[in-house]
Design a protein that fits this description.
By secondary structure, this protein is of the alpha/beta class. It is built from 13 helices and 17 strands. The protein folds into 2 domains: 107 residues, Leucine Aminopeptidase, subunit E, domain 1; 321 residues, Aminopeptidase (3-Layer(aba) Sandwich), CATH 3.40.630.10.
């Protein structure tokens, strides 16, 4: 294999730390190490290396700009500098990702030699790639059965006890998921898998993850406009992200007992689909009036949360591409975090800042709880007022969480609208690293 070429990643105050000839050349070019700037070094033999400007950017994503800007004919290596090598490798790997299952890549990314101590970065990048692949797969190729199979495969590959529920078993145990999927020719399924770390005894803390896996969302009878359906293959993003968290927990062999529940379903329109004003009886026994068939995600999660919280886990986490209101409030890059436990919320917020994987906390404001009242049932699945949609959705879910359970809800976009360094356009594992890091620090 050819000798790797050096990459000097420098900040404005460290340009002078380069080899003398290179530093002199850069001075002559008025190189200021602006974030993302790239200069190639030459010697008598041709290409001799590259200088990459970091500016004041401390995120790993900046290094994701390199895989398709560096020539791929030779491998590359990072020289030491004022940056985190593990973060740089993670960013490089995240930037090298492309969804190529259906279309070959236009070119191969450059290859980076792995510095010492950075192997775990590849596990994090592999988990992100798994999440991105699931979200990016078109809905005709990833329906409820295929998503369920992916979840089962992940559990089985790590020695978990995995089972799938469908048909009559699904209707008995997860009636609201059955109702959401009743309009589709592709039957809904729920996958549950249980895994214990090698150091987890019978009293080890339980980490319970519940993911919304709506493989395509038409909105049902409350049909979405066509423009709003264009990205609805990503409506299983919450399930994909929590599968990524689960993969990291298992690969890290954390001393916990892990339980993962994924609701795999499609929200379609047909003669058997649920209707506005239908009343559903949930696993918890609460009756819910369907005020809007396009608010199906909370119906997918409510039975999962009821079952999971009755097991009294140390932390219960759900994730979903749940509301447009969260995007209006926070934009595409900030998943909304709701939590009934201030300590867990603080842990995830801090981990998000540390890992450059931010989330933003919104309130479980009890003053809006009455907006879910229904004249026909015990509650409605949508609010009586056209405001605070993300808050109201979280309040709906909270009704199904058992008393005393620490619960955290993530309302995420799970998508990059355009390619940026380390974040190619398409599905994204938002909050995956923040959640995993918080769990590892608290329970690992």
């Amino acid at each position: 294999m050819p000798t790797a070429l050096p990459i000097y990643a420098v900040r404005p105050d460290s340009v002078t730390g380069l080899p003398a000839s290179s530093a002199a050349m850069l001075q002559g070019m008025d190189f200021t190490a602006k974030a993302g700037s790239l200069v190639f070094l030459q010697d008598a033999g041709g290409l001799a290396g590259a200088v990459f400007g970091l500016g004041s950017d401390r995120s790993p994503h900046l290094f994701g700009d390199l895989p398709y800007r560096l020539p791929a004919a030779r491998p590359w290596r990072l020289e030491s500098g004022d940056y985190d090598p593990a973060g740089a490798c993670l960013g490089f790997a995240l930037g090298a990702y492309r969804y190529t299952a259906l279309k070959p890549a236009a070119r191969m990314p450059a290859v980076l030699e792995l510095p010492p101590g950075c192997k775990w970065s590849l596990e994090e990048a592999a988990s992100a790639a798994m999440v991105r692949d699931l979200i990016n797969t078109p809905a005709n190729l990833l329906g409820p059965a295929e998503l369920a199979a992916a979840a089962m495969r992940l559990g089985n590959d790590h020695g978990a006890a995995a089972e799938s529920f469908e048909g009559e078993a699904l209707l008995r145990q997860y009636p609201t998921i059955a109702a959401v999927g009743a309009g589709s020719a592709r039957a809904p399924q729920v996958v549950v898998f249980r895994w214990s770390g090698s150091g987890a005894g019978g009293d080890a803390p339980v980490v319970s993850l519940c993911g919304k896996g709506v493989c395509f969302d038409t909105g049902g009878y409350d049909l979405k406009p066509s423009a709003a359906m264009l990205r609805m293959k990503k409506d299983m993003g919450g399930a994909a992200i929590l599968l990524g968290v689960a993969r990291l927990i298992m690969r890290a062999d954390l001393p916990v007992r892990l339980v993962v529940r994924i609701g795999c379903v499609e929200n379609s329109v047909s003669g058997t689909a649920m209707r506005p004003s239908d009343v559903l009886t949930t696993r918890r026994g609460l009756t819910v009036e369907v005020g809007n068939t396009d608010a199906e995600g909370r119906l997918v999660l409510c039975d999962l949360l009821a079952e999971a919280s009755d097991e009294k886990p140390a932390i219960l986490i759900d994730a979903a591409t749940l509301t447009g209101a969260a995007r209006v409030a926070l934009g595409p890059d900030l998943p909304a975090l709701f939590c009934n436990d201030d300590a867990w919320a603080a842990d995830v917020l801090a981990a998000g800042r540390e890992r450059h994987d931010p989330v933003w906390r919104l309130p479980l404001w009890p003053g809006y709880d009455g907006w879910l009242d229904s004249a026909t049932a015990e509650l409605n699945n949508v609010a009586s007022k056209p405001m605070a949609g993300a808050v109201v959705a979280a309040l709906f879910l909270q009704r199904f969480v058992a008393e005393g359970v620490s619960w955290l809800h993530l309302d995420t976009y799970a998508w990059n609208d355009q390619t940026r360094p380390g974040r190619p356009e398409g599905g994204e594992a938002q909050a995956m690293l923040a959640v995993f890091t918080a769990i590892k620090k608290r329970l690992g």
